[in-house]
Amino acid sequence: MAVTVRSAVGVLLPIFLIGIFARLPLVTCENNQLEVMQEQELRQFIADEDYVVVLFSNAGDCTGRCEELEDTLTSIREDVVEALNAWVVRTHSPTLSTEYGLNTKKTGDIIFVRKGVPLLYSGPADDDEYLLHYLITNPESSIHTLTDVNFEHLTQAATGATTGDWLVMFVRADCDSCVQLQSTVEAVAAVLKNKKNVAVVDRDDQGGQTTRRFGVKTFPSFILFRQGRLYRYMLPAVDATTLIHFASDGFRNARAESIPHPKTPFDDFTEWCADWLRENPEKAYLGVGILAVLVAGAVFCCVRSSRQAAAAANKKANKKKK
Question: What pTM value is reported for the model?
Answer without folding.
Answer: 0.78
